[in-house]
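User: quick one - fold this with adenosine-5'-diphosphate bound?
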Amino acid sequence: MSKIRFRALAQVSERKPLKISEKKRRSSLFGENVFNQDTMRQFLTKEAFIGVKSAMEHGSKIDRKIADQVASAMKEWALSKNATHYTHWFQPLTGATAEKHDAFFETIGDGKAIEKFGGGQLVQQEPDASSFPNGGIRNTFEARGYTAWDPTSPAFLLGTTLCIPTIFVSYTGEALDYKTPLLRALTAVDKAATDVCKYFDKNITKVTASLGWEQEYFLIDKSLANSRPDIALTGRTLIGHSSAKGQQLDDHYFGTIPARALSYMSDLEKECMLLGIPVKTRHNEVAPSQFELAPIYEESNLAVDHNSLLMDVMKKVADRHNFKVLLHEKPFAGVNGSGKHNNWSLATNTGENLLSPGKTPMRNLQFLTFFINTIKAVYKHEELLRASIASASNDHRLGANEAPPAIISVFIGEQLTNVLNNLENVTKGKLTPEERTDLKLNVVGKIPDVLLDNTDRNRTSPFAFTGNKFEFRAVGSTANCANPMTVLNAIIAEQLIDFKTEVDHLVKEEGLKKDSAIFNVLREYIKESRPVLFEGNGYGQEWENEAKKRKLSNNKTTPQALKARVSKQSIALFEKLDIMSKIETEARYEIEVEEYTLRIQIESRVLGDMARNHIVPTAIKYQNLLIENVKGLKEIFGDEFKTHAKEQLNLITQISNHIETINSNIEGMINMRKKVNKITDSENKAMEYCNKVIPFFDTIRYHCDKLELLIDDEIWPLAKYRELLFMK
Ligand code: ADP
Ligand code: MG
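Assistant: Sure. Structure tokens for the protein plus adenosine-5'-diphosphate:
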């Protein structure tokens, strides 16, 4: 057996689950390493506490004096927990989180030193922006960028480092990260939704978008994973024949969690508790070695930070447990990939979920308003929503008959479909008193009963209503949720603004009563949005055909999907709501297109190298063995050798054929890359990588995988699927 593979396999059998001793209750650990409101109250003066709280809740500015006080309190708290460093913690467009640690330590002359951290360091820092993706903003403006404190997401301790969540913008204020546009979108949706809420309840003064993500992942033995260049460099297997046993028995989903994995989860959950990430659910997923983790939902900005932090912590904890965690959307061909469902809803300061019906007809009209406006917004911007989840890795899932298709549609269930059918028939213009009463009592009034048994769940829908929230299921497992959440909240904000304008118009200009006006507008929305509603099987070819008739987009690849980001409609949306300027939107597009090209380029190189340096030489080695064997047979049997060497000769020929096809395709792929690399326009380049380079992957892989079936297991150089997925 190849040395690397042998060593890796030998290590697996020595592994035992780590014992985690837990003396404390989990709840007592919650938030222990977070500079949260409770801690702040202890460490801050009353004045400073009120200042920070108001910034957290109303986005008001924090003056320098208060910032100094907060910094000093943060430092005291962090030092009391043995911290040595601090960092601005941010989410640049690389997809990973970024940190640059500075020590609290400062010399003060006379050979003395102290720990120092002031308001200045808390509020702003200047990391070099030129090493982060900026999509050309750097060329247009200044190379410098700065990070600025986001007081709405509490600082936390990671090991001995105090991490301060920040935004990251260019020197001229353009967003260079995920958080900045998200915060702007959340402000926009708060304002638009609050204005609409005033129709129903004057006490509502703030609306927050909530997010509950569900993170899927694979857990693979570290030494096995590290023995494979493709997993190490691309996060997925580029080669590998499926295992004789895969997920066909459905014996993994919700099954007993293997001891080693459970020990990892337990340790991970403990870390999450300390960091204030409210993890709640854990279970096996469909594919072997695939799992899921989900928290209790939170305010979106915090939830996004927590998911980014979680992905980082998952990797660190995995290392301690001799695991490698794979967050890639499709690490293994032939078994399910991973996603990250984004559960979304809107909550008011009065404690209501706007996507959950209530006890009074008015409250239910409010529910319907937000429900129908969401459907309308998704319909109008379905292509942008699809773009918000586009990535090279997520292309493997969307439309691959295991995850939602690349077509965005909305599932609402049978009962709510009936409600919409009823509302669609509301009289145009003024409603009669009888009709209003009937609507209130029999349609709107009955919604809560209807929803109670709304148990039908369509797992194939990319955007499904699940009782009191919408679940955006097409998000990729590696994604930063900020991207889809910025788009979703932005389109809802725009839609609610339009809705209010229309209702106000009917009330003021046409003299309609408020609820009649609302019914009138909603009726038209239902009619217009019909094409996006789909209750059937999203995986079937019939739906693709039907969606085409309905003029819904079906952008299967990232370069195709991303275009919607820079459509006139999308640019106008972000500009109008002060979420992103045209320059920022275009820069983001540029970054995503380039990232796509780079990822495919890397995969293409790794695949070429592996096929040439690992697979082909192994095939030749085995072929030589066969040749030796044939020669021996000839020596013994003379002219009769062919009857005895028939299979060997056949194998020798097959191996030669595979080697020949692999080599000529690698040749072809490299030449194609050379040609495509000359293209200067990044959009065209990404398109060509998608349409001309990727097709080589399948052919090369197919022949490598065939060789895996032919060649002696003893000398096969790569850890096999059965080892990667079934080693406990
Ligand atoms: P599943 O989709 O796996 O059946 P659930 O529907 O119970 O699971 O919940 C999934 C996620 O939805 C959880 O993370 C939960 O916190 C989140 N969630 C529940 N209510 C809301 C809400 N109002 N807003 C956002 N997320 C929510
Ligand atoms: Mg779910």
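One thing worth noting: The first strand starts at residue 85 and ends at 90.
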